[in-house]
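Supplementary Methods, section 5.1.

A reviewer requested that the exact input to the structure prediction be made available. We therefore reproduce it here, unchanged from the version used in the analyses.
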Amino acid sequence: MDDSSYALRIRTSGSSLVHIAERTGTSARTPCGFSPAAGYYTVVAAAPVTCPQCRDRADAALAGSGDRR
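The structure derived from this sequence is encoded cell-by-cell as follows.
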C-alpha cells in the first residue's frame, strides 16, 4: 500500500491522537497499525496529524513526493 492511499485523517472518541488512514470497506487502516471499525472513528479533515508514527509516515511521503523547485 503506498502513502497516497492514506487520504483520511481520523480520531477515535476519547483520544487526542489524529491518524492518517485509508478506508477499507466500513473500517479504516493506518500506517501505525490502528484499525478502528466503522462507528469507532470520526473523520477530522482539518486536524493536524498527532500520532507520532502516522506523522513520520506523512512527513516522509511529502519529502519524497518530488515537489522540489
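The two ends are 27 Å apart (CA to CA). These observations are discussed further in the main text.
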